[in-house]
Amino acid sequence: MSFQSPLRRNRNVHPARMGARTSSYWSDLTREHGFESLEIEGRLPAELNGTLYRAGPALSQRFGSPYGHVFEGDGAISAFRIGDGKVAGAHRLLRSAGYVEEERAGRALFQTAVSWPRQLANNLRGRFKNTGNTAVLEWHDGLYALMENAKPTAFDRELETIGETSFGGVIQSAFSAHPHSVPARRTTYNHGLRFGRTTSFAVYALPWEGAARCMVEVPLEHPVMLHDFMATRDHLVFLVSPMQLVMWRAVLSIGGFSDLFQWNPDAGTEVIVVPIDEPAKVRRFKVDPFFQIHFAAGFDEPDAVSVDLMAYPDSSALATNVADIDKPPICGEVTRVRIPHGSDEISKQRLCDIGLEFGQTDRRVAGERNRHLYGLSVNENMNFAIAHIDFETGKEDVFWFPDGEFTSETLFAPRSPEAEEGDGYLVGLAYNQASHTSRLIVLDAQHVGDGPIAQARLDHHIPADFHGTWVPNQVGHA
Ligand SMILES: [Fe+2]
Asked: Measured in angstroms, how far is the CA atom of residue 315 from the centroid of ligand 1?
């Protein structure tokens, strides 16, 4: 995730100053390159054909002026073309308009890399850098880097930046970093917050064949953080936690993360359900407060809509996670929230023992009831793991990385288009602190606990990344 304008913070007070951290995982990109062949170790499945795209912040400073937080970093895309038993990898910074402007000026111009008066002036003039450092969307054969609070940034298959886009004027303000596809509708959905005198969010539909459109604009009581949502076959579900933005602090760039947001439990969590076929008939009601950063899945039942998410009692876990990148991140409880159609009494059910984040499913069943869930876990000793939960058998299959190896979100790639749900591979990246290098890893999604069955090492590291996408059958571009 990423927090940019208006969610900036003061470089003088933020606790996670870049210079103070020790984790090399978040350190700056050291080498950009186009696609290069990588040596494969292990057994790379012959049927695995596609490209993994990943996005993350890759610069901690501009011209020696440090950002206040890693989330501000200029985005980079890494990509791995897999097919015919070969792997080629590429890694490039996004040349955002702000980045290019800074290159021309020869100095930092944006975010907390500049003085407080300059930050204030930028805020008042609505100037900020669209870093695209959070996620990747593929739509209509185009590729887009996404961030929390800005428009998509198009890039080509060689990872060269094309530039910001509004999809033909449809995206008026922001386009979040969490689009969700519903294969049954051959449509991808997303939302975008709009801050101003009032706060609202727009709901967007991106048909796989056809033009983007805004489905509805939903007003909110307060400016909030609204990072993710979930799409089912018939509904779009937003759970608006009472993590409210203190707007004057954001505008004035005063304070750290915990100062910019205020947990206001009295406001409760607002459940907002948008029926896809009748988006104007928004249903909304309040429930006791809880917090989530990410959703993992969702599906419709005859009398309810259910969403699976990584739940927290409040926003303190997020505040902890973003305030100190050297501490083990806190994972959430995988929770199914059931929202009956005829009642405001939601129910919650914990789905597995292990705490997870970055929950993922086989995206071919997105919007439908899923059997398999995959996610990242971290223990108190900063050991990272990839977990597979089989809801049918109840089995939790976990691979723990050794000390000093970190990983991020892994994505499911099916063995074939016709394969059963869960029959395929997990593809992702792992970082080794001792060698300061990253590697592509491939796991058998049905035997996650066995660890990677194949890997391809880079001669450099990929800075810690957030989200990405798996695009099948793109090896023809290699
Ligand atoms: Fe996210």
From this structure: 15
